[in-house]
Write a structure and sequence with these properties.
Layout: H1 3-20, H2 32-42, H3 47-60, H4 64-68, H5 72-79, H6 86-101, H7 110-113, H8 121-132, H9 141-150, H10 163-173, H11 179-192, H12 211-214, E1 232-242, E2 245-250, E3 261-262, E4 265-267, H13 275-287, E5 290-303, E6 308-320, E7 330-334, H14 346-349, H15 352-360
Helix pairs in contact: 1-11, 2-3, 2-8, 8-11, 9-10, 9-11
Iron/sulfur cluster is lined by residues 146, 149-150, 193-194, 199, 201, 204, 206-207, 210, 212-213, 218.
Amino acid sequence: MKKSIIQKIQQSLTRWYRENSLDLPWRKTDDPYQVWVSEVMLQQTRIETVIPYYNRFMEKFPDVEKLAGSDIQQVLKRWEGLGYYARARNLHKAAQVICEKFQGRLPDTREELLTLPGIGGYISAAIASISFHIPAAVVDGNVKRVLARLFMDATPINATGEKNQFETYAVKLLDPDQPGDFNQAIMELGQRICKPGKPVCSDCPVQEFCMVFQADKVGQYPVRVVKKSIPHKKMNYAIVFQGEKCLLLRRPAEGLLGDLWEFPGYEQDRQTDQPEKQLADKIRRMTGIRISVKEKIGTAAHAYTHFKVTADIYLCFYKSGEIRLDGPTEHQWILPEEIRQFPCHKLIHKIFPMLDRLVNQTETF
Ligand code: SF4
């Protein structure tokens, strides 16, 4: 693409952005902390979903010091429902590093930003360009889609290791005089106009320069690698009562859904004709206590990004033994109405109504 065309694309895109950009809470400032939090939340998540989470998070953690000094459980509680919980844990860890090493201020170079937990190429480029006006090009899924169409490039946008190709385009296209506005413009174009399904080419400010539009091949781009179907896990969870309280466990900090709370449960690795016995055995190994399994009270299902889960939920009662955890890092016996105070993952939220029903049935206990 000729330099003169690139300049026209830059002008058209930034003009469109200034006249049409959405009125979003994180756009009212170029404060690096606010830009950072918003960009972390926006990864893998739609704008409309992020807005209320962002506002509630800023209310509770208005600056780096406040976030760094807070307990991770409070941070996870504000994040609850947004998914990808490693993002919240990394924000919290990075805030502590910023306070220890950078006097509570986000560093103003990409190299230093990249040393912080959870900050990779995309987020460092977003903060550097929006808050510090450094010419760093952002490349996320939305941007790759726009670039694949603009340049009519058949490189699969979801293939691993293909980012460099799109990075080359992004760097070529970036307006070095206004990198923050340009980056936000191309991201917003991808979110609102050059959408995955049907792009709204009639409203597109760069339509006249778009190679797939000119070639009448919009429907054929971007190209994607067809991914294998995601695995489906079968789980069993136990709501274990001792008197009026039920048992809640905290997952290990590292790994999937780290630090979140859940009922004792396990992945059923093979078909069994005695799920109740298997559940009691697994719970004994995981917690050290013996339980009796009264009955199955329902089924919950949830699709996470990399797998789906269908879980059977059992009402159980404590029989004997002392808690000795193998796997979970902490336990609490809680009243059912206290469960909403704990950060829990989505599947556990789907069990809340079953717990409410149990409490309302007097014959449960
Ligand atoms: Fe995307 Fe259509 Fe604009 Fe091309 S013309 S960049 S396909 S919205």
